Amino acid sequence: MTAFLEAVGEGLGTGSVYALLALGFVIIYKAMQVISFAQPAFMLAGIVLVSYLAESVNFWAAVPIAVAAVALLALAVERVAIRPMVGKAVFVIAIITLGVDVVVRVVAGAFIGVDPRSVGDPWGQEVVNVAGIDMAQRNVAALIAMVVVGGLLFAFFRFTPIGLAMRASALDQEAAMAQGVNVGTVFATSWALAGGLAAVAGVFAATGGPIDQNIWIVALAALPVIILGGLDSLGGAVLAGLLIGVVQAVVATYQRDWVPSLETNAGPIVPYLVMMLVLLVRPYGLFGTKEVERV
Amino acid sequence: MLAVQNLEVVYDDVVLALRGVSLELPDGKIVALLGANGAGKSTLLRALSGLLDIHDGEIRKGSVTLDGTDIGERKPADFARRGIKHVLEGRRVFKELTVEENLRVGAYTARSKLAENTERVYGLFPKLADMRRSTAGYLSGGEQQMLAIGRALMSDPRYLLLDEPSLGLAPMIVAQIRDIVVEINSQGTGVLLVEQNAAMALEIASHGYVMENGRIVMDRPAAELLKDQDVREFYLGLGAEGEVKSSFRDVKHYRRRKRWAS
């Protein structure tokens, strides 16, 4: 039982990272009906920035600066590469985001270099005992960060004029324009938010050890998460992220007993398996709108 | 005054939707715009509110002017900020938002006066005030139309462009909408009323335009249009019916007369 609960704790940490990444995907999707494949790159850029900034200022100052910087980077990318393409086929824009991803990732990756770097987080491999269960501090921190960021996003979309305008624009773009909403602002805000979210997610994905060059692959696990949650549901992204994180961690803990032949490889395929199983029952994901394809 | 001069609009570079339309919407007046389906009424409204672009429409000739300044090439947000609000055909409320949130989006360009305008809209539509927390998609058709009009009024516009507000509504509700349009107008907003329900539109308008095939074919005070034999026959469904049925010659006559041929 303890092993199981510890796996759940571990999964909540990973799941929070997935949820943060998935929120970025969903926000951009709602704004422009495009899946942005540039999220892994923004995540990596955030990690690299924090690792350099943490050397001069401390970790707590480095994170907000890096998040703001990546949000600005995303804003610039949207303005330069995406905005001129608005009105083109959604597929074309998605491929352009793929190109952006490669460019940003290669540049950011070059700064990692051969020597091991870390984001300089204060948690490392420390554990904290919660009701008899050992949880890695970094997982607790990721969960707290996700809850705080999720709460802020909720308030943003509920109470700020631009947040409300973004929801309106997702529902009916022309009607939103007729109210004086500038869709350019909506697109730009969605990219900035997604960039910032990817940076936060990156920091928590990279805690607890040296930065892996291939850490951006974590961001791809957010793809089954958004499909599972329903492409256009923010709450769905959070729940699906946590769900997939937990299932993945539990499978990783018990896989040696269940399927010894797979060694440690069962974990990474879990997100896709869960996605497939849920889609068989609910084709629109857990919380997706049925008519996601709008005319 | 909001006006268009010799406006030519083309969709997708090929479809000529407006062929030299001129129209004036003076401050504080109700102007009716009549015409059959496909005559170009909605296109004209889009030109007046900057919404041509997302329909791949483009102004080829002529101009849209506000107090003499050409504003035809500006963004929709600019039109809204300058006090021109377009109520789209088919209501188009934000279905998953609440009534109050819909109104707040309408106030996007006039956020500082949110409270004041909310009061005013709830005053005009007491029903909406009772349902401020309900999801807009669950409102009835008439209520949604009221919400769509209320949403546009949230920025206290100088001109309100109404595209078929009576579409698909019961006669009782149509009468309510009519009274509300009169009320809005009496508070100083100029209204351009596009309608299939010509009797209702001409009853409250001071001036009327009739469109056909992308042209304005009649441009007269509403009272004169109400008395006009052709308008009575083709738009109000009055007079001359019997004759049309009785003789083939009259059918041809009808056909010929159906085109006022500029």
Shape of chain B: globular
Mean pLDDT of chain B: 89
Measured by residues with Cβ under 8 Å of the partner chain's Cβ, the largest interface is:
A-B, 17 and 33 residues
Order of helices and strands of chain A: HHHHEEHHHHHHHH
Average pLDDT reading of chain A: 89
Helix content of chain B: 25-40%
In terms of DSSP E residues, the strand content of chain A is: under 5%
The unreliable regions of chain A are none
Instruction: Classify the secondary structure makeup of chain A into a structural class.
Output: mainly alpha
Please name the defining characteristics of this protein.
heterodimer; A: 295 residues; mainly alpha; two-stranded antiparallel ribbon; 12 helices; B: 262 residues; alpha/beta; Rossmann fold; 6-stranded mixed sheet; 4-stranded antiparallel sheet; globular
In brief:
The complex is a heterodimer of chains A (295) and B (262). Chain A has 295 residues and is an all-alpha fold.
Topology of this protein?
The complex is a heterodimer of chains A (295) and B (262).
Chain A (H helix, E strand, L loop, with lengths): L1 H31 L6 H18 L2 H24 L7 H21 L16 E4 L2 E4 H23 L1 H11 L1 H6 L4 H23 L11 H4 L1 H8 L4 H25 L7 H16 L14
Antiparallel strand pairs in A: 1-2
Chain B lengths: L1 E10 L3 E11 L4 E6 L5 H9 L7 E10 L2 E2 L5 H6 L2 E4 L11 H8 L7 H11 L1 H5 L10 H13 L5 E5 L7 H16 L3 E5 L3 H7 L2 E6 L2 E7 H6 L1 H6 L6 H6 L1 H11 L4
Parallel strand pairs in B: 3-8, 3-9, 6-7, 7-8
Antiparallel strand pairs in B: 1-2, 1-4, 4-5, 9-10
Helix pairs in contact in B: 3-6
